[in-house]
C-alpha cells in the first residue's frame, strides 16, 4: 500500500472539517534528544536521582505505579496517619517527609531539565512552521504535556492579531479565562467557553488548585517554568498531566479530573460525515487504548494515520479493522509523517 504525502492528505480533506491529534512525535520532531524519554521514573533512575535500592523506589513498586504525585501523597498521608496512632518517631517522620520533598524536586527536575526554559529559546522561523501546521485544523488534540504546542498557539494568536498569517482555520483558544479577581493565573471554565485546543493528558502549565483548574502564564508572572512549577508543588498544587501507567490507569486519572475528562469527552464526540482526523506522532499503542476507544466513539468519517513506512501499517492493522467494522464504518488512510515539516526540520 503506497503511503500518501501530507500535502495529499490536505488536498483530500480540503472540504472537510479537520481535527488534529498529536503525540510525542510533535515534540521529538523539534528535538529528539530532549523529548525522546518515555518514563519519568525510568529517567529518574537512569539519572541516579532515584536509586532502585531506596525506600522511595520500593513504594513505587509496592503500589504498582509510576505516578510521582500519587507516591508523594502516599508518603505525606502516611505520616499524618501514623502520627495519630503515635506509631512513628521524629527521625522516621522527618525521613519520610524529606523523601516526599525530594520526590517533588525530582519531578520538577525531570520534566523541566530537558525542556526549553522559555519560549524565546525557539526561533521565529521554527514557530512559523509549527503555527502553519496547526492553523489548518478546526480543533487540535494532543497527548503531550510539554509546552511546545502551547507556545505555538501563543505565537499563532500573535500572528493572527498582527495580520501576519493567512488562511487560518484554528481559533487557538483553550477554555481558560480570567478569574473573578486579578491573579497570576487564569482558570478553566468547564462551561462551554470557547475551546479549540485540548491537552488530553494535561500539560506543564495547567495545575490542579483543588477548588479550580488553573493555567499559569509567563506573561503574568515573569517566572520561568522550573521555578513556577516548584513554587506550586511546595504549595501542594500539582501540574495536571498523565504520563505514566497503563491505558486503564490513565483513563482512571482522566475521569477523576474535570479538565482532563472534559477534553476526553470532546474527542469522543467530534465529527460528522464530512470530517477527518489526522493523527501525527503517535501509534496509539496499548497504553493509549482509551484514545482508540474515543476515536471509535466519535463521528469522524476519515482517519489518517502518520507512519514512517509501509511496514508500520501492520502495527495498526487490527485497529484499522475495528474502525472499518463499526456500525458506522470509518475510512482509514495512511500517510508518510516524514513529509510533514512541523518545525522546518
Structure keywords:
single chain; 345 residues; six-stranded parallel β-sheet; five-stranded antiparallel β-sheet; 11 strands
Widest beta sheet: strand line-up: 5-2-1-9-10-11
Name the poorly predicted regions.
Answer: none
Question: Strand content of the residues, in percent?
Answer: 15-25%
Helix percentage range: 40-55%
Round the mean pLDDT to the nearest integer and report it. 90
Distance separating the two termini: 26 Å
Shape: globular
Structural class from helices and strands?
A: alpha/beta
Backbone CA Rg:
21 Å
How many DSSP-defined strands? 11
Please describe the biggest sheet, giving its number of strands, its sense, and whether it closes into a barrel.
6 strands, parallel
Q: What is the succession of H and E elements? A: HEHHHHHHHEHEEEEEHHEHHEHEHE
Task: Provide a count of the helices.
Answer: 15
Describe the 3D structure.
The chain has helices at 6-12, 25-28, 32-35, 40-46, 55-62, 68-84, 90-113, 124-134, 148-161, 218-221, 225-234, 247-255, 258-269, 289-297, 313-324, and strands spanning 17-22, 139-142, 176-178, 185-188, 197-199, 202-208, 213-216, 238-241, 275-280, 302-307, 331-336. With 345 residues, it is an alpha/beta fold. The strands form 2 sheets. The protein has a 6-stranded parallel sheet, sandwiched between helices. A 5-stranded antiparallel sheet has the order 3-4-7-6-8, with helices on both faces. Strand 3 (176-178) and strand 4 form a beta hairpin. The longest helix has 24 residues, at 90-113.
Amino acid at each position: 500500500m503506497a503511503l500518501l504525502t501530507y500535502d495529499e492528505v490536505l488536498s483530500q480533506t480540503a472540504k472537510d472539517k479537520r481535527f488534529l491529534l498529536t503525540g510525542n512525535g510533535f515534540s521529538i520532531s523539534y528535538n529528539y534528544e530532549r523529548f525522546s524519554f518515555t518514563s519519568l521514573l525510568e529517567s529518574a533512575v537512569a539519572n541516579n536521582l532515584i536509586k532502585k535500592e531506596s525506600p522511595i523506589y520500593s513504594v513505587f513498586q509496592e503500589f504498582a505505579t509510576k505516578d510521582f504525585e500519587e507516591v508523594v501523597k502516599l508518603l505525606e498521608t502516611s505520616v499524618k496517619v501514623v502520627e495519630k496512632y503515635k506509631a512513628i518517631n521524629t527521625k522516621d517522620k522527618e525521613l519520610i517527609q524529606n523523601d516526599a520533598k525530594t520526590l517533588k524536586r525530582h519531578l520538577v527536575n525531570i520534566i523541566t531539565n530537558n525542556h526549553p526554559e522559555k519560549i524565546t529559546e525557539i526561533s521565529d522561523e521554527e514557530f512559523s512552521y509549527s503555527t502553519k501546521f496547526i492553523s489548518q485544523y478546526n480543533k487540535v488534540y494532543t497527548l503531550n504535556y510539554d509546552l511546545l504546542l502551547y507556545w505555538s498557539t501563543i505565537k499563532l494568536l500573535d500572528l493572527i492579531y498582527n495580520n501576519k498569517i493567512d488562511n487560518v482555520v484554528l481559533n487557538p483558544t483553550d477554555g481558560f479565562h480570567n478569574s473573578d479577581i486579578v491573579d497570576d493565573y487564569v482558570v478553566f471554565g468547564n462551561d462551554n467557553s470557547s475551546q479549540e485546543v485540548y491537552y488530553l493528558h494535561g500539560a506543564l502549565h495547567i495545575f490542579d488548585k483543588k477548588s479550580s483548574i488553573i493555567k499559569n502564564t509567563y506573561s503574568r508572572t515573569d517566572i520561568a517554568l522550573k521555578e513556577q512549577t516548584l513554587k506550586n508543588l511546595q504549595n501542594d498544587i500539582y501540574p495536571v498531566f498523565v504520563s505514566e501507567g497503563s491505558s486503564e490507569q490513565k483513563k482512571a486519572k482522566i475521569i477523576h479530573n474535570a479538565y482532563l475528562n472534559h477534553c476526553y469527552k470532546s474527542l469522543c464526540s467530534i465529527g460528522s460525515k464530512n470530517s477527518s482526523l489526522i493523527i501525527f506522532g503517535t501509534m496509539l499503542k496499548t497504553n493509549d487504548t482509551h484514545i482508540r476507544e474515543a476515536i471509535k466513539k466519535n463521528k469522524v468519517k476519515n482517519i489518517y494515520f502518520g507512519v514512517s513506512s509501509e511496514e508500520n501499517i501492520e502495527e495498526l492493522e487490527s485497529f484499522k479493522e475495528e474502525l472499518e467494522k463499526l456500525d458506522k464504518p470509518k475510512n482509514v488512510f495512511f500517510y508518510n509523517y516524514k513529509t510533514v515539516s512541523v518545525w522546518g526540520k
